[in-house]
Amino acid sequence: MEGKGEQDSLLVDFLASIVDYLPVIPDELAEYYLNRSGFDCPDLRVKRMISIATQKFISEIVNDAFQLCKLRQTAPLKEKKDKLSKAWFIEGVILLGWIN
């Protein structure tokens, strides 16, 4: 386990790198929706961390949807007809590991 001083220096380095990193979601857009939801924080680093977390969340959803689309396209014809039923989404969710 690392020492407390080393952990503090890693945290300081991480927070400094967040200021330099520009997430895909612009700061103005993130600030607008954060203010609209009642979140008020003057620290840019906190807003950037929320933007980065949102970016990761959205990219995981898009990636999972893409994987599901590829899975549906490569399924045999009989399975394609079955997956067009109401249960296709549940099957895809289970196959992608959203539900264990």
Walkthrough of the structure:
The longest helix has 31 residues, at 44-74. 74% of the residues lie in helices and 0% in strands. The chain is elongated, with a radius of gyration of 20 Å. It has one domain (4-96). The two termini are 32 Å apart. The model has no long low-confidence stretch (mean pLDDT 80). With 100 residues, it is an all-alpha fold. Belongs to the TAF10 family. It is found in: Nucleus. Its main location: nucleus.
Task: Name the descriptors.
mainly alpha, 100 residues, single chain
Secondary structure: elements and pairs:
Layout: H1 4-20, H2 27-36, H3 44-74, H4 77-83, H5 88-96
Helix pairs in contact: 1-3, 2-3, 3-5
